[in-house]
Design goal:
Tumour Suppressor Smad4, 2 domains, 10-stranded mixed sheet, 6-stranded antiparallel sheet, binds adenosine-5'-triphosphate, Diacylglycerol_kinase_cat_dom, metal-binding
Length: 304
């Protein structure tokens, strides 16, 4: 087992900010007495291979420099490898992304010096993780923050156009997309509940924030063994514009048109032929019918 840290940097995250800030982050890691090896990703999902190789070499302490997509890839690397020493693996985050949503739940600072101090203290939380399986392909994806289908996936698919707007990228993408999005006919089944019909979006939440600081699930708790589900069949642009603060303080979830549930499993069937994107932690992962289940207390993160 290595006592060194393995640092993976996505140079494209935060619209290139990770690459620019790396020399200062490197200096600060040395300054705070970290022993580490580091590597830059060279293509999308490259962190999956890099992290799996690092774990096979005996690294247990990982640092992720990037945004929510980079954290998502590191989590997927660990859980798809499912090593014998999973309990010993810890993930620390230096948040340099666009939305930086996952870190907000745990008050991890966006100031990299503060984020490094938090990692140094090695206080961990064992968090719940979602496992999503696309029925047709059997593809499995883990998520640590929030997954969704419908409008949510549509916005994520468009958001790259607005990445230069920073945290407003998702909000801008959502407002621009609301007029053009065509709802899909979905069937959603969990516990004794069956929802069927034209659906704007379904969100499956673990942590508190998504879409660049929005609070779109009502009562999330990242360690309670349950997803927080938000289901919206329709909402007008007018209602959203009248509740802009509610998007960011969570009161939007109290509107009559927004339904909230808790469950640890659910099934989603697409009842029409329209392609509907599924997103997990802000990454498009496919389309089609899928099942989701919760893995309670599945992975250690270093938190404030
Ligand atoms: N070297 C690379 N070249 C191109 N894409 C990469 C590279 N390394 C990682 N990626 C991809 O970059 C994407 C975005 O990364 P990330 O989410 O960390 O940044 P972000 O989108 O700016 O932040 P956020 O998700 O917090 O909004 C991920 O899908 C990841 O697979």
């Amino acid at each position: 087992m290595s006592t060194k840290w393995f640092v993976v940097i996505n140079p494209t995250s935060g619209n290139g900010a990770s690459k620019k800030k790396w020399p200062e982050i490197y200096t600060e890691l040395i300054h705070q007495n970290f022993e580490f090896e580091f590597v830059f990703t060279e293509y999308e999902k490259h962190s999956l291979v890099l992290v799996q190789n690092a774990i096979k070499q005996g690294f247990t302490k990982l640092i992720c420099v990037g945004g929510d997509g980079t954290i998502h890839n590191v989590v997927n690397a660990v859980l798809s490898l499912n090593p014998n020493n999973l309990q010993e693996i810890k993930i620390g985050i230096i948040p340099i992304g666009t939305g930086n949503d996952w870190v907000k739940t745990y008050n991890i600072s966006k100031d990299f010096k503060e984020a490094i101090k938090i990692i140094k203290a090695e206080k961990t939380i064992i968090q719940d993780i979602g496992k999503l399986q696309i029925t047709a392909s059997g593809k499995e994806v883990y998520f640590n923050n929030l997954a969704g289908i419908g409008f949510d996936g549509y916005v994520v698919n468009k958001v790259h156009k607005y990445k230069n707007l920073g945290f407003l990228a998702y909000f801008t993408g959502a407002i621009v997309s609301l007029t053009s999005y065509k709802r899909s006919n979905l069937e959603i089944t969990f516990n004794n509940t069956n929802l069927q019909g034209k659906t704007l979006m379904l969100l499956i939440g673990i942590c508190n924030y998504s879409g660049g600081g929005m609070r779109l699930t009502q009562n999330p708790n990242s360690t309670d063994g349950l997803f927080d589900i938000t289901y919206v069949d329709s909402i007008t642009l007018f209602t959203i514009l009248g509740n802009l603060r509610g998007l960011f303080n969570g009161t939007i979830t109290k509107l009559k048109c927004v339904k909230n549930f808790k469950t640890s499993n659910l099934k989603v069937k697409i009842l029409d032929s329209q392609e509907t994107y599924i997103q997990a932690d802000g990454e498009i992962i496919g389309s089609g019918n899928f099942n989701v289940s919760l893995l309670p207390k599945a992975i250690n993160f270093i938190v404030a």
